Structure formats: structure tokens, C-alpha cells
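C-alpha cells please, single chain.
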Amino acid sequence: MNSRIFTGMGLALALGACATMPQPNAALETARAAVHTAEADPNVNKYAPLDLDRARKDLSIAEDASLHHKDVEVDQPAYLATQNARLAQAHAAAKADDARVAAGQIERDQIMLTARTRDADNAKQSATNARAVADVALNQRDKATEETARVQAELDALKATPTPRGMVLTLGDVLFDTGRAELKSGATRKVDQLAQFLMEHPDRRVQIDGFTDSVGTDSYNEDLSQRRADAVKAALINRGIEPSRIGTEGYGKAYPVANNNDSGGRQLNRRVEVVIGGNNGTAIAPRSGI
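Here you go.
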């Protein structure tokens, strides 16, 4: 009789112990895994340390709640830790892509600088040869060359490139916040340079064309590209440029200059192009082609 009583009591104690053992919390386990994965990503530590720090703090709160058996308070910080860890990886990946694009731009700028230096050297040699031919011709050519060189130097400072429509100055999407049409403060220097050039050459017109990447609807992209072009126009008007000298057009996702399948290509497609017309004051030809 006594042995059966003790056996029953032992079984009850064992069952009670099992019932009080803490069960794994799925949200907490997911959060731990997500934070661990983010910590192992070298890009996260380099480009998104603040996001990772928030994820760690949220995980710590969830761990503390679990330690004190406050299960009802575990899920929310665990969920936030998971989301912030994943957000850290997403931000880090995007910034790593941007860094690769920037590195490519530096290389392209160096190639362009080398080409301009070579052209300048060739022009200098041509001028030297011309001086040996005739003093009168030299004086006339010097005046024309000086003016051309001055204008070219101004266009070079703007990083404008020649096209059949005129010299084109490209303003990248870094001058605008994502999805916004207001010029950021970083655009001031570029717009000031363009306005100064137009003030010194009152016979030249400009055509401002806005473009987006392929993300979003056609109507949204066309509207955003038009508003961005109009924002650049407004900035020039505020600096004293006559509105009649400025045309604008929003093309949305049309006329991409890079592949929209990756973030680097999409960044290059999000742009505003300013076409600077010739010195004869004629209207700038409309854009055509693909």
C-alpha cells in the first residue's frame, strides 16, 4: 500500500516538473538566428552598424523577458529584433552596391579627364604650329580659341558631355531623396554653376529632362520625373534665369542608360539631364530614339 502511494507521488512530481519546464519560444529563436546571421555579414558591420545595434538591443530585451518567464513580453521585442536584423542586411547590401557604382564612376571620371588632357595638349600644339604660319591669322585664331576654350572649360567644370542635341549635364538621383522632387542641399553647388554659366551666356537655352527607373507605375514615374525637372527649373529661375529660356519634360522610365535589373543600374537611370543649347539661341531639338 505504502509503495503504491510513494510511486504515485513520484509520478505526480515528475509530471509537474515536465509541466513547469520552459518551452522554446519560436519568435525568440527566429530573432536569435536573424541577429546571428546579420552579425556574420561583413557588409552589415561596415555599412549598417546602427541597424544591427538596434537588433541586438531588441534581442536583449526579449532574452531578459524570457529569462524572467514573462512570455507575453517576449514576442514583440523578438519580432523587432528579427526585422531590424533583416533591415540591417538589406541596408548593407544596398550601400555595398552603391559603393561599387561610385568606384566605377571614379574610374570613368579618370578616363574622361585623361581624354580632356590629351585634347588640351593637342589644341596647344595646333596653336603653336599656327603661330608659325602668320601673325595675323594667329591673332584671330587666338581670340576664337580663347573664347572656345573658356566656354569649354566652363562646360568641363559642369561635367557636360556633347550630344547631337547639345552639351548634356547629368544630375544623379543623389540630389533628390527617394520618391521626392525637392532638391537637396547638396545640389546647390551644381545648380549655382549652371546658373552662372547661363548668366554669362544669355543667348543659350536649356532643356531639362527628368527620368526614373522602372520601379513603380508609368503614371507615377512620369509625374515624379516631371516634378524633378520642374524643381531644377525653379532653382534656376530663383537664380535669375529667364523662364522662357528653360524647357522641361518628364520621361518617366523611358530612355534608360543602364539595366534596371540591379540597384546600380537603377541608380544610373534615376537622373535629370540638362541639355545646354548652342550659342545661336535656337530651340533645342526634342529627344528621339530609344
